[in-house]
Amino acid sequence: MTSSTTTKPAAGAMLPRRRRFGAETIFRWLTTGAGTAVLVIIVAIATFLIAEAVPALRDNKENFFTYKEWFTGPADRKFGIAALAFGTVLSATIALLLAVPVALGIALFLSHYAPRRISTTLGFLIDLLAAVPSIVFGLWGRDYLVDPVKDLSAWLNEYMGWLPLFGGDGPFGKSVLLGSIVLAIMVLPIITSLSREVFMQTPKANEEAALALGATKWEMIRTSVLPYGRPGIIAAVLLGLGRALGETIALAMTLGTTFVISFNLVETGGNSIAANIANKFGEADDFGRGALIASGLVLFTITLIVNMTARAIVYRRREFR
Amino acid sequence: MAKRIEASGVTAYYGAFKAIDSVSMTIEPKSVTALIGPSGCGKSTFLRSINRMHEVLPGARVEGRLTVDHQDIYERDVDVTAVRRMIGMVFQRPNPFPTMSIFDNVVAGLRLNGVRGKAALEEAAEKALRGANLWNEVKDRLKKPGGGLSGGQQQRLCIARTIAVEPQIVLMDEPCSALDPISTLAIEDLISQLKDKYTIVIVTHNMQQAARVSDRTAFFSIEKTGDPGRLVEYDDTQKIFTNPAERKTEDYITGRFG
Ligand SMILES: Nc1ncnc2c1ncn2[C@@H]1O[C@H](COP(=O)(O)OP(=O)(O)OP(=O)(O)O)[C@@H](O)[C@H]1O
Ligand SMILES: [Mg+2]
């Protein structure tokens, strides 16, 4: 097939033939292959999880979705996801509420306010923070942050105890607040460096359009930088949320491991699906492992729903991009 | 409404590089002034120093004196945003806000000025869009994104956005260079109409355009690359195009140079 494609056709001759095995085709196969591989892996994981979880779910003596506690010993086979799922979502939400404003502030400072040199150095430090393993955050939170958070909790409890969030009468310490603060610090770098990247990509023409209308710097950021970066911000927050929801060891070390559904942030307590898996996996028998895997499936579903919601948000505004 | 601009000894730098050297000229109210000259001679730089957009770039600064109706706009305690609100600018490439609807684009400047209230904004938007000869084309799709318009429509949208805040001076940097001949004519017509209310300064590479729309023409030039741009000749457009005083001007407009 080849010679006709490389020699120049004489005047009036037929056009060169389409190359059937060129780089284009190979590339298409490669990309299709990669795409399919992702699907295969996801299906394989899901199958594995379901196969492991089903037997344990079948022997469960309580309703998996509404029961709050987690007993998987030979005598007592009752476990439920309610408190764990609640704790997961609560700690991740609080973590994001703490992290997102700070992260966006830092990102804007780096992209639009700081002098070039400071911005590069600080950006580098933040990327470094993202590389710190979560066990380090966990240890640090457990050993060093716990006392300041205890004091903060006592203070919040004293002055804002009328809010259910800060109510109760102690003890304080290893609480949702501590876990969420550690989580917030952990997700901060991802959200910061992604949004900074997005903010820096704002077309100069848009920024100048705003400035030429008489916008102050902050107004310029509001009219051109933030709207332009919106999908990117959403993506960054989602990545952070994904990490917060799935974070295991740092939460296992900083939460109080209780099995209750409560909005109280300051009292010792709190738990999450991933932390529970970390705490229980070592001593679990086959049944216990199956039960933990079932909880893993729930976490998987929560993450999936969060992602799809965010995609829907980004997609709805696509006309304006 | 329209105001007089007086530049004396305006010199602009990008860092250590001097882009224009000591430009002095007076621009009359309610007139159209064209800035022409070869690429890189500092037309855009001079234009951007009139509304203090030059200093937006890192390291860029302006020396000399620039007054609008005898008020020095570079004085220390002058509010830059007020200067830019008074002196609107239309850029070479249409730059509507991509995430905003047509309507929101037009009223963006008003919202920045704190104008609220649906009725007031709607009225102002219609007035500005009519002023930019765009109303009939977009009145049924005001909620659609501004980026969905044709290039010429986008440019008129940008003009509408600029005149919506009722500036006193409108600066235009090659507003038609990305547009087809019909859109270009539409914008030229518009410029002739806007002249009744605003002082207009327009940069253009198109000699016919300068001749068609402007009352006065300023010819900028540079000796060689790396030198700052200078104002060579500034006179009535009629005179510049028929009987220029400077040899360089004549060479340029007859196409022998630049
Ligand atoms: N952002 C910048 N940084 C550094 N130098 C610049 C910058 N913008 C322009 N210059 C330089 O300043 C000089 C004048 O540029 P300017 O853009 O004002 O020219 P111009 O007359 O508008 O040219 P054109 O007709 O091509 O638009 C040129 O030598 C240019 O290289
Ligand atoms: Mg220019």
The named CATH superfamily of the domain at 5-97 and 167-253 in chain B = P-loop containing nucleotide triphosphate hydrolases
State the helicity of chain A in percent bands: over 70%
Strand order of the largest sheet of chain B: 6-7-8-3-9-10
Number of strands of chain A: 2
Main sheet of chain B?
6 strands, mixed
Mean pLDDT of chain A: 88
Overall shape of chain B: it is globular
- The level of helicity of chain B is 25-40%
The chain-level mean pLDDT of chain B equals: 91
With strands numbered from the N-terminus, the spatial order across the biggest sheet of chain A is 1-2
Named at the architecture level, the CATH assignment of chain A is Orthogonal Bundle
CATH class of chain A: Mainly Alpha
Radius of gyration of chain A: 26 Å
- Judging by the overall fold, what is the CATH architecture of the domain at 5-97 and 167-253 in chain B? 3-Layer(aba) Sandwich
Order of helical and strand elements of chain B? EEEHEEHEHHHHEHEHEEHH
CATH superfamily of chain A: MetI-like
Regarding quaternary structure, what we see is heterodimer
Low-confidence stretches of chain B: none
- Main sheet characteristics of chain A: 2 strands, antiparallel
What portion of residues of chain A belong to β-strands?
under 5%
Distance between the termini of chain A: 44 Å
Explain how this protein is built.
The complex is a heterodimer of chains A (321) and B (258). Chain A contains eleven helices and two strands; from the N terminus they run ααββααααααααα. Chain A has 321 residues and is mainly alpha-helical. In chain A, α5 (134-160) packs across α6 and α6 crosses α8 (217-246). The longest helix of chain A is centred in the N-terminal third of the chain and has 37 residues, at 23-59. By secondary structure, chain B is an alpha/beta fold. Helix content of chain B is 36%, strand content 25%. Chain B has ten helices and ten strands. In chain B, strands 6-7-8-3-9-10 form a six-stranded mixed β-sheet, with helices on both faces. A four-stranded antiparallel β-sheet of chain B has the order 2-1-4-5, covered by helices on one side. The A-B interface holds A 116, 203, 205-206, 208-216, 219, 223-224, 227-228, 230, 317, 319-321 and B 51, 53, 56, 58, 81-85, 88-89, 91, 93, 95-101, 108-109, 112-113, 144-145, 147-148, 158, 161-162, 165. The structure holds adenosine-5'-triphosphate (ATP) and magnesium ion. Adenosine-5'-triphosphate binds at residues 14, 17, 19, 37, 39-45, 57, 229 of chain B.
